[in-house]
Amino acid sequence: MRPEKKFLVEEVRNRVSSADHLFLVSFTGVTVSDSSAFRKALAEVGAEYHVAKNSIINIVAKELGLPDISGVLAGQTGFICGGSDAAAVAKAVSGFFKARENATIKLGVLGEKVITKEEVEYLGSLPTLPELRAKFLALLNTPAQQMVRVIFVRGEKLEGKAE
């Protein structure tokens, strides 16, 4: 392998190996301004978008023991990795790609599982981790509020009988 290719493989391997999720997209015919806006949207959730040759992505996937993704490695392929919340990254990806006809999601890889375009879009429709935490805390807090309210009302009733 040529030194230039080794460098590219190493660069892609470093980016992909540090993430627990990976999304492959097709960006055919997308303008530079769209690409910049996409990178900015991903940066807000801690993810990065990169374009690499299909052969290099395939080599890295095999080296890292990822599931077989060679079936979608045709045409222009970009990969998205990074970010601690896969749902937030999927939400940014699917939201951006809904508005563009010539850009499509090819597939995603979560851990060792390949997910389809539809599953990536579904993952993007789920609440993000901070939203889930807030809902869970609100759910835990609700019974305590109701219990305090019951005790308060019961106390008022007892005071009324004492008079």
Brief characterization of the structure:
The chain is an alpha+beta fold. Helix content is 57%, strand content 16%.
- Largest sheet, strands/sense/barrel: 5 strands, antiparallel
Oligomer: single chain
The average pLDDT value, as a whole number, equals 83
Radius of gyration: 23 Å
Q: Give the strand content.
A: 15-25%
The SS-based structural class is alpha+beta
- Which series of helices and strands comes N to C? HEHEHEHEEHH
Count helical runs.
Answer: 6
Major sheet strand order: 2-3-1-4-5
User: What is the overall silhouette?
Assistant: elongated
Percent of residues in helices: 55-70%
Task: Please give the alpha-carbon distance between the first and last residues.
Answer: 93 Å
The total beta strand count reads: 5
* Regions with little confidence, pLDDT below 50 for 5+ residues: none
Structure description:
The protein is α+β, with helices and mostly antiparallel strands. The protein is built from six helices and five strands, in the order H-E-H-E-H-E-H-E-E-H-H. Strands 2-3-1-4-5 form a five-stranded antiparallel beta sheet. Strand 4 and strand 5 form a beta hairpin. Helix 1 (3-17) packs across helix 3 and helix 4 crosses helix 5 (117-125). It starts with a helix and ends with a helix.
SSE topology sketch:
Elements: H1 3-17, E1 21-26, H2 32-43, E2 47-51, H3 54-63, E3 78-82, H4 86-98, E4 104-110, E5 113-115, H5 117-125, H6 129-162
Antiparallel strand pairs: 1-3, 1-4, 2-3, 4-5
